[in-house]
Known about the structure:
10-stranded mixed sheet, 10 strands, binds copper (II) ion
Amino acid sequence: MKTLIACLLSLAPAMACAEISTQNAWIRSSTGPNGALFLEIENSSPQLDSLVSATTHQGQCDHMELHTHKHEDGKMMMRQVSSIEVPAQDKVELKPGGLHIMLMGLKKPLQDGETVPVSLTFESGETLDLDVPVKSAAATAGHSHH
Length: 146
Ligand SMILES: [Cu+2]
């Protein structure tokens, strides 16, 4: 509550408050060329925000892309998107078969038990640093083929 009051009193509310939070971030273990990151992003501000980019700090992959899945010709196809919207006072869920963050060009396999440091950048200018655990697909409820 203290934070909220401070934000309301601020003269620059859009810049003053950390409004984005994340939960349940994980990266699917992978021995293939790419990996996928899933998480929930919550936006407590009254304004729409968007995830615009993601990076790793330790060079685990060549680069990261934001992806969604679309049905095309009866098949689930992955498509790169330029941003992922997080509605005001709501949250967006990145999960297998839907929106996800892709680690393109893995330098080495992502193994169960590892942690990958990831930075997320939002349109508002806010950045979040996360240490994301790697989990095997079998250890999660996900069942999609990536
Ligand atoms: Cu993808």
